[in-house]
Amino acid sequence: MSGSNLETRSLLDELRNLEKGFFFDLGHPLLNRIAESFVRAAGIGAVQSVSREAYFTAVESVGGDTASGLPPELGVGAGAPKKRNRFPDLRGENNRKSVEALVKSTGKESLQWGIAAGMYSGLTYGLKEARGVHDWRNSALAGAVTGAALALTTDDHSHEQVVQCAITGAAISTAANLLTGIF
């Protein structure tokens, strides 16, 4: 019993130490920050993607509507438009094709999360170094550029969607910067 407690304590110590240092030493703080942000966010994106697919699979197996994400008794009605499943290829002809589609979609989503986090982190650091101050303006610009870049990773992006994502990215990152320390 004490051995498992010791293992748990050492794992918790390792997890606490992750917050203090960087995973990488690429020779420059900017590169370290981008790489670490990319890896952490890509991992989160993979977990989110797989969790979402597990949810849709569970809802479908109990007879729910995966388009709306609701069980049949809570359906959206006959006249309501149906949302399309985000990953329609996951229902392959066999398990192998389904797993391949899951890995492909998870990889794409992980890449998107990683690019967004790495780009945002790198831009905020670079702007802080260039301007000598870390304020809401740095966050707004980094959020706008990251939002626009993220919009460009979608299959069917339009000018309007890119601008909308840039505005949303700027708004979210500015709000996060301004609310830091309040909660």
What does this protein look like?
- The protein is an all-alpha fold and 183 residues long.
- It is 68% helix and 0% strand.
- It has five helices and no strands.
- The chain has helices spanning 2-18, 29-61, 95-131, 136-151, 159-179.
- Helix 2 (29-61) runs antiparallel to helix 3, helix 3 (95-131) runs antiparallel to helix 4 and helix 4 (136-151) runs antiparallel to helix 5.
- The protein is globular and about 55 Å long.
- Residues 73-85 have low confidence and may be disordered.
- Its main location: membrane.
- This is Outer envelope pore protein 16-2, chloroplastic.
- It is found in: Membrane.
- It is a multi-pass membrane protein.
- Residues 70-91 are annotated as: Disordered.
In short:
This protein is mainly α and 183 residues long.
Tell me the layout of helices and strands:
Layout: H1 2-18, H2 29-61, H3 95-131, H4 136-151, H5 159-179
Helix pairs in contact: 2-3, 3-4, 4-5
GO molecular function: amino acid transmembrane transporter activity
Keywords: Membrane, Transmembrane, Transmembrane helix
Region (Disordered): 70-91
Which structural category do the helix and sheet elements fall into?
mainly alpha
Distance between the termini: 39 Å
Beta-strand proportion: under 5%
Q: Note the main sheet.
A: none
Described by its quaternary structure, the protein is single chain
The unreliable regions are: 73-85
General form: globular
Total beta-strand segments: 0
Helical content band: 55-70%
Mean pLDDT level: 78
Q: Counting H and I runs of at least 4 residues, what is the number of helices?
A: 5
Task: Give the topology string: H per helix, E per strand.
Answer: HHHHH
Radius of gyration: 21 Å
